[in-house]
Specification:
The protein is mainly alpha-helical. The protein is built from nine helices and three strands. The protein has a three-stranded mixed sheet. A hairpin with a 5-residue loop joins strand 2 (about 155-160) and strand 3. Helix 6 packs across helix 8 and helix 7 packs antiparallel against helix 8 (about 210-230).
Length: about 250
């Protein structure tokens, strides 16, 4: 938020990726190192080891409380650790978060597949033309859905990791459909579906950490802004205004 007006969407996009890597691989770098004095080394420390068995009597020079404690520790009694409790709570929370996310995703995919239809020849031609223009070798799958369903699921959008799929409203055609399709292809080129998957994993791993949810929301907005920035690169003011008007009008109609 601080650098929103000072840095481009692309810069904030790559900064977000770096932060995602930091969350996934939490490295800790020691900035200060100290050398221990020689008189603290192990060779200068002398101690006495008292072997304790299950029935060994503790020496009388110890206090009664310490003797009872050592006797209790010497017995083979299982001790429930607080660390074990925290690990169990963390594992349950992570599994529940991941299960909820996967359930939503599979229900979403089921809804899309049930309402999907074949795209028109014009839309397929636009897809081929834009993929060649943008240098996308592996063309995503293209499907359309009815306007009422598109409003519910938020089409147009892109989903899928191994087989990316672009979903377009069936009532979109002409130049407007080409612009929105190009926007979705920029999501494919940016690997934004992989970004969303990584954020889902991070929210499962850091389910207890409240700022991770704000970070996921901010990363989603930055992905959209980066696509909009790529869409307007090299275009004049009139084309940028037309693109902005299309986005606002499309969002208002929804």
């Amino acid at each position: 938020r601080i650098f929103r007006e000072k840095a481009s969407a692309k810069a904030r996009y790559f900064a977000g990726i770096i932060l995602m890597v930091v969350f996934l691989v939490p490295l800790r770098v020691s900035l200060v190192s100290m050398r221990m004095p020689e008189w603290i080394t192990q060779s200068h420390i002398q101690g006495t080891v008292i072997p304790i068995s299950g029935k060994t009597e503790i020496s009388g020079f110890l206090s009664d409380g310490v003797t009872e404690m050592l006797t209790a520790l010497s017995a083979d009694v299982p001790v429930f650790s607080a660390k074990t409790l925290w690990i169990a709570v963390y594992a349950i929370g992570a599994c529940m978060s991941l299960t909820v996310a996967l359930g939503k995703y599979f229900r979403f995919c089921k809804t899309v597949n049930r309402c999907a239809g074949a795209p028109s020849d014009e839309l397929l031609w636009q897809m081929d033309m834009l993929c060649g223009k943008m240098g996308i070798c592996r063309q995503p799958k293209l499907i359309v859905c009815h306007a009422s369903v598109a409003n519910i699921i938020g089409a147009p959008f892109t989903f899928g990791i191994f087989r990316r799929t672009v979903v377009m409203p069936a009532d979109m055609e002409g130049e407007d459909a080409e612009i929105l399709l190009e926007h979705e292809l920029h999501h494919c080129k940016q690997k934004d579906t992989l970004i969303r998957l990584t954020m889902t994993v991070l929210k499962a791993l850091y389910w207890y950490y409240l700022p991770i949810y704000f970070f996921a929301k901010a990363m989603e907005s930055v992905c959209e802004e980066a696509c909009d920035e790529r869409m307007t690169d090299g275009k004049n003011t009139a084309d940028r205004a037309a693109y902005a008007k299309l986005l606002v009008g499309f969002a208002s109609a929804r």
